[in-house]
Write a structure and sequence with these properties.
This protein has no helices and eleven strands. With 120 residues, it is mainly beta. The strands form two sheets. Strands 2, 4, 5, 6, 9, 10 and 11 form a seven-stranded mixed β-sheet that branches. A four-stranded antiparallel β-sheet has the order 1-3-8-7, with no helix packed on it. Strand 9 and strand 10 form a beta hairpin.
């Protein structure tokens, strides 16, 4: 059973960089044919895919967020990390990490989500 767990600060000040980590257990982030995504849901809005890192280490980003987003991984910790720079209150959301399948594009495992609030 694959499990994902997000960790990071619940409160970030405007203009700072948000850093979240997703620790994976029950499966390796280098296993073929999977990619590891960050997805967020602002209050009252739908899910927004932010970006992903593939099992190869290649990264992919949502066009609107590309200039502010960086995803990296630490294979020794089986962990991948989101950095979102220059945050504003509009970045307030529940942030999720999830595993996606390359063949179908669907997500089969999700973390429980972590609330991030951007406020001074």
């Amino acid at each position: 059973q694959v499990q994902l767990r997000e960790s990071g600060p619940g409160l970030v000040k405007p203009s700072q960089t948000l850093v979240l980590a997703c620790t994976v257990s029950g499966g390796s982030i280098t296993t073929n044919n999977y990619y590891w995504s960050w997805i967020r849901q602002p209050p009252g809005k739908g899910l927004e895919w932010m970006g992903a890192i593939a099992y190869t280490g290649d990264t992919y980003y949502s066009t609107p967020l590309k200039s502010r987003t960086s995803i990296s991984r630490d294979t020794s910790k089986n962990q991948f990390t989101l950095q979102l720079s220059s945050v504003t209150p509009e970045d307030t959301a529940v942030y999720y990490c999830a595993r996606g399948r390359v063949d179908s594009g669907s997500f089969d495992y999700w973390g429980q989500g972590t609330q991030v609030t951007v406020s001074s």
